[in-house]
Structures are given as structure tokens and as C-alpha cells.
Amino acid sequence: MNTFKKILVATPDGLIQPSVISQSAKLANKQQSHVTFFSVTKELTQEQFSWTSTLKPVELMANLFEEQRISLSNNVEKFQDNFSSVDTCNAVGLPFIEVTKKVQQDNYDLVILAAKESNQPRKRFFGSTTVHLMRKCPCPVLAIGPQEAKPIKRIVAAIDAYAPSEEGHKLNEDILRMASNIAALENAELHVVHAWKLPDDNYLRSRATISEIENIEIVMKKQIDRQKHMDNIIERNVTSALSPIAKLLEGAAQEKIPQYIEENNIDLIVMGTVCRIGIPGYFIGNTAESILSEVSCSVLTLKPEGFVSPVE
Questions:
Q1: pTM of the model
Q2: Residue range 29-40, pLDDT digits in tens
Q3: CA dihedral defined by 172, 175, 180, 181, rounded to 10 degrees?
Q4: Cβ contacts of residue 193 below 8 Å, gap of 6+?
Q5: Of 27, 113, 173, 291, which shows the fewest CB atoms inside 10 Å?
Q6: In this structure, are 132 and 39 located in the same domain?
Q7: 179 close to 209: Cβ distance less than 8 angstroms
Q8: 150, 176, 207: which is the final residue of a domain?
């Protein structure tokens, strides 16, 4: 079973979203985790120094850092009784870099932060810090809707049942086990989805010697084979006690998965992000990024085993 022994909550010092407090407390208390609320003071530019103070830059940054350290500590003090083990920490620099460094230095198992509200209904906006962490942070990243302090009732685990590499197969297993663990903790309904595209018209026309009925039979066989393969993956990695709902979605993943999430009122999607392991650089794949831009629920992203962060 996956466990989060150490959770890092990345947050502004003065505005900690209730949904982030609620979800981090729930996960931490059920798994006896230690939680650190972590805030990063951005360095001021030379122009900002000239606008704000006659103090030397070093003195001004020291004052600003101390103000934000006290602010974070005072805010966490208001709800610290909700946690069995909690502390605070501050740093100076770029938020995604400092969060990633903190994760690597102190071996955190999970990063939690708030997603932003989009100006479009039923969508989240993942700010630059969140996207950078999803790309570069070595541990799972959970982005939570800022106004959602509600329980997680329905979870989607999105897998690529026909992943082309061994790292992809291992990532499927990690996604399923992580989603199963959270479903068990939350007493939530678990959905497992895999999207696949039917052969296009050009493919069917290329098989001119085959009748339409035979083409339909070929497509149906492919669908049955995929469903069986998907069911086998689920059976190996998800306990039957959870009674997972397996759904084979016909169409492009970037369209069908967000549609499924909306239609089924999903609260959390657990998904992988595409990269080549062992390379110190990372880009979210087109499919993953398209899904992230369309979903309205909270998102937990995982990276393949062996991922190397470019942040040192």
C-alpha cells in the first residue's frame, strides 16, 4: 500500500486555502503523516527594491522573509490541532525550484497545493508553479480546487493499457495502486479508464477487399481484446473489495477523459505524466497537458520510476 509519511504543502504565507488544509489533514491523520506547510518568498527585482525602500536589498529581503515566516507560522497555528504532526518552513527564491529542492533534500512523499479558479466554468487553472512541479518535482503532486473542502467520493485512475514501454507499464501499476489507496482511505468509488481510438476511415478503406461486416467484426474484436487486457491489469493491481468500475472510452483521451469526469462528477483524477526516465529534463506530454487544461476536478500526477529532476 502506498503511504505518505511526509507531506509538503506549498502555499502562500497569508492565504492557506481551506480545501488544502482539509485534504492534507485528512490524508495525514489517516496515514500518521508529518505535514510541513512551506512558503517561498520571491526575490525582489532591482526595480522593486528602488520602489519599496531605502534599505539595502539584503536588509529588505531579510525583513520580508521574517514577516512571511511569522505570517505562515501564525496562520498554521490557527488550525495545527487538526494535525498530529505539523511544522512550517520558509525559503527564498522561485517557488517551484525551492519546493522541488525541499522535496529532494528531506524526502517528502507528496506535494499538495491549490489549483486556481479558471474564468471558464467547470475548469481549473494550473498556474506556472503547479505546472512546473508537475514537470520537475520527483514525488507525486496533488493540485486541489481552492473552493473545494468536500470529501472525495469518486476517483478516476487514467491508464494507458497498451503503454509502449516497460516504464509505462510500471506507471500504470503505480497509478492504480495510488488511486486504490486513496479510494480505500476515502471510502470512495474507483473508476479505471483507458481511452482508445477506433480505426479511421482511411484505414477501413485500405481494407477494400473486406466487407463492412468483417470490418465491424475486426473493430469489435479489438475492443474486446482491449477490455480483457485492461481487466487483467486492474485485477493484478486493485483489490476486488473496491469493486472498481472499468471503462473503455472510444475516442481521443484528451477529449473523452475530461468528458467522462464531468458526466460522472469525478472528484479526483490520478494520472501519469509522460517522460523518458534518466534524463534531467521533463515535459508533460501533449495528451496529459490537454487533459489537465480541461478537467474540473482535483488532479494527482505521478511520474515514472527512475525520473530525474532537472532541479539540483
A1: 0.86
A2: 988 999 999 999
A3: 140
A4: 156, 157, 158, 159, 246, 247, 248, 249, 257, 260
A5: 173
A6: yes
A7: no
A8: 150
All residues at 6 or more sequence positions from 219 whose CB lies less than 8 Å from its CB, including other chains = 198, 199
Q: What is the pLDDT of residues 204-258, one digit of tens each?
A: 555 556 666 766 676 778 778 888 888 999 999 998 889 999 999 988 888 999 9
Q: How far apart are CA 235 and CA 18, in angstroms?
A: 36
Domain residue limits at 35: 1-150
My answer on whether 146 and 177 are in the same domain is: no
Cell of 246: 472499468
Tell me if residue 293 falls in helix, strand or coil.
helix
Domain with residue 24: its CATH number is: 3.40.50.620
Which residue, among 21, 23, 19, 8, has the nearest Cα to 185 in the 3D structure? 23
Distance CA 266, CA 268 (A): 6
Q: What is the pLDDT of residues 107-133, one digit of tens each?
A: 999 999 988 765 555 455 567 888 889
The answer to whether residues 140 and 246 belong to one domain is: no
Q: Which residues pair with 192 in a beta bridge?
A: 157, 246
Domain count, the chain: 2
